[in-house]
Design goal:
The chain is of the alpha/beta class. A 6-stranded antiparallel barrel has the order 10-13-16-15-14-17. It has a 6-stranded parallel beta sheet with strand order 3-4-5-6-7-8, covered by helices on one side. A two-stranded parallel ribbon has the order 2-9. The protein has 2 domains: 158 residues, Lyase, Ornithine Decarboxylase, Chain A, domain 1 (Beta Barrel), CATH 2.40.37; 230 residues, TIM Barrel, CATH 3.20.20.10. The chain is elongated, with a radius of gyration of 24 Å. Strand 17 and strand 18 form a beta hairpin.
Length: 408
């Protein structure tokens, strides 16, 4: 479904949905919703796989960066080799949804979660000696284990969060040999500052990772997957691709950072024939129109005083629906292909925008918070800039309760 046509249809469609698709008819009954483009998602995965040439692990943690965990996985099922999530809860949701692709849990687990992971055959990260002890207990307690427990050992190379220090790896290997029911499927780490184009620090981390891999190799431990690269590193540093690349933010058509975007443009990485495509649009319906006289105050705290007679449109979305309060007085939305400024403070469930200079605005019309309307576009990056944050946070903070529609 072409989003430009869709937004035009929404503006002109009758309230009973006559002349529109079933999906569009459902949307006509909503005050706000998210649209996710499945074909753009598949395009992004295939494009990046063609560029990097290694096995790709789509990262679908954080409700697939706000795009919808299960539906994104279902879309990629059969195209992805292996999925990465951060929690047992996410892995279980995929399992219960019937997703057959291998799942790796890349975050910490409680002992009870680890027991269930062992029983269900999930692969998962190991970050400290306590994790190794918990695996043994989980195996002993499990009644439905699936044989060898597959793990990914994390090496701390410089982000200083989770993982074993290099000097601990010899002891890790000893423990692994004592516990014969563990298979080291992966060895991995995480780069701290690729997106900031910090080349010297990135190279130091790569060197440490290489040292760690050599320690495992000397003990004849040969993991199927060696992985340190996420989206930015996989493109910028071919040597970091190893056997597996963790594909996160670029899967969803968003650049890892402004610096990366400028670097990629300078190298012509994504030319006209091969661009990553944003896959998410966020729409809300105008629920009320109000005329405010010059000098009138708008919103909480009387934070905005009308400099002239104004016409306002009220949207039934606010920070509870994922629109950051920080964009108050700074952000914009699209209405009829034109920009309308957010005025006053973003409320918990309402936002006011200035439509004084947009002709013939009506209650029920569509405002676009993220996405295209005609030739105009507001990106997650632009919204992030207004909120003084990053695009990751913008999409990931979109509540799972928001209606999501997935088009082909």
């Amino acid at each position: 479904m072409n989003q430009r046509n869709l937004i035009t249809k929404k503006r002109s469609a009758p309230s009973n949905g006559v002349g529109v698709s079933q999906e569009e008819s459902i949307m006509l009954g909503k005050l706000f919703w998210i649209e996710v483009d499945r074909s753009a998602l598949l395009h992004n995965l295939r494009l990046i796989k063609s560029i990097i040439g290694t096995t790709v692990m789509p990262i679908i943690k954080g409700n697939a960066y706000g795009h919808g965990l299960v539906e994104v996985a279902r879309t990629l099922n059969g195209e992805a080799d292996i999925f990465g999530v951060v929690s047992f809860a996410e892995a279980l949701a995929l399992h219960e949804a019937g997703v057959k692709t291998e799942i790796v849990i890349l975050g910490k687990q409680t002992p009870s979660e680890m027991k269930r992971s062992v029983e269900l055959g999930f692969s998962f990260g190991v970050f400290d000696f306590e994790d190794l002890e918990n695996i043994e207990q989980a195996q002993n307690q499990s009644k439905h284990g699936s044989g060898l427990t597959k793990v990914h050992i994390k090496i701390e190379t410089g982000i200083n969060r989770l993982g074993f220090q290099l000097e601990e790896l010899s002891k890790v290997i000893e423990v692994l040999k004592e516990k014969g029911e563990i298979r080291v499927e992966g060895v991995f780490s995480h780069l701290a500052s690729v997106e900031e184009l910090n080349q010297s620090y990135t190279e130091k981390q790569i060197e440490k990772f290489e040292e760690g891999l050599k320690i495992f190799a000397s003990a004849n431990i040969k993991p199927k997957y060696r992985h340190i690269a996420a989206s930015a590193a996989a493109v910028m540093y071919p040597e970091t691709r190893y056997d597996l690349t963790r594909l996160g933010i670029m899967l969803y058509g968003l650049p890892p950072s402004a610096g990366f975007r400028l670097w990629a443009e300078s190298k012509n990485i994504f030319d006209h024939e091969r661009k990553i495509l944003p896959i998410l649009s966020y729409r809300a319906r105008i629920v009320h129109l109000k005329d405010v006289r010059k000098g009138g105050y708008i919103g909480y705290g009387c934070s905005f005083q009308a400099p002239r007679d104004l016409r306002l449109a009220v949207l039934s979305v606010g920070y509870a629906e994922g629109l950051p309060r920080a964009v108050s007085g700074r952000g914009e939305v699209l209405i009829a292909g034109q920009r309308a400024k957010i005025i006053g403070r973003v409320c918990m469930n309402m936002t006011m925008v200035d439509v004084t200079d947009i002709d013939n605005v009506k209650v029920g019309e569509i405002a676009t918070l993220i996405g295209r309307d005609g030739e105009a576009e507001i990106t997650a990056d632009e919204l992030a800039k207004w909120a003084d944050t990053i695009n990751y946070e913008i999409t990931t903070h979109l509540p799972s309760s928001l209606p999501r529609f997935y088009n082909e």
